[in-house]
Amino acid sequence: MAARRAEDLGAALDAFVAAATRQRAAAAAAHEGLTANDLLALSHVQQADSVRPAQLAQRLLLTAGGTAGVIRRLVAAGLVERSAAPANHRDVRLRVTPDGRALLAAQAAERDAELNRTAPRLRGEMVALLSRLTVLAERRADATAEHVAQAIDPARGVPSPVLWG
Predict the structure, then answer these.
(1) 3-state SS record for 91-146
(2) Distance between CA 80 and CA 95 in Å, rounded?
(3) Which of 143, 161, 149, 146 lies closest to 2 in space, CA to CA?
(4) Is-contact 87 42, C-beta < 8 A?
């Protein structure tokens, strides 16, 4: 039961971090005149160095049409370039341009600066939260130990038939 609660807490924290990341990405993208998907696509193309549009669609979980719109905006902004393979002109690859790399580097620098500004406050809040959780866990452990101690039949040293709750 405690393991399940820890999993639930972990899942809630993961969801919170993901939502905060999406919100930050959307704000950063809007500042640049892009969408959050545009910025995410730009990041994926940079990580892959070179990617096919179909691979990008799969990675972003977008339709072919949605991906085409993202690519069109990134190309128009000069952040991504399309290139055809010499052997097969239908094999289109996407690559990040120097302007795209500069934009991603600036976004990363802004994110790092924000984390450095907020880390001391967040660290204090996290320590306080973990301290409170530790106290609650210790109280629960003490209550469980007391319940078990009361349930043991002193004559036999084994638990008597009780309902565990």
Answers:
(1) CEEEEECHHHHHHHHHHHHHHHHHHHHHHHHHHHHHHHHHHHHHHHHHHHHHHHHH
(2) 6
(3) 143
(4) no
- Rounded Cα–Cα distance for residues 18 and 12 (Å): 10
DSSP 152: E
Domain tally, the chain = 1
Which amino acid type is present at position 86? P
Which pLDDT tens digits describe the chain residue by residue (165 residues)?
556 666 666 677 666 666 666 676 666 666 677 888 898 899 899 998 889 999 999 988 889 999 999 999 999 999 999 998 778 878 889 999 999 999 989 888 887 887 778 777 777 777 788 788 888 888 887 777 777 666 665 565 555 555 555
pTM of the model: 0.59
Query: What CATH number is given to the structural domain containing 41?
Result: 1.10.10.10
Confirm whether 26 is domain-assigned.
Answer: yes
Is the Cβ–Cβ distance between 105 and 28 less than 8 Å? Answer: no
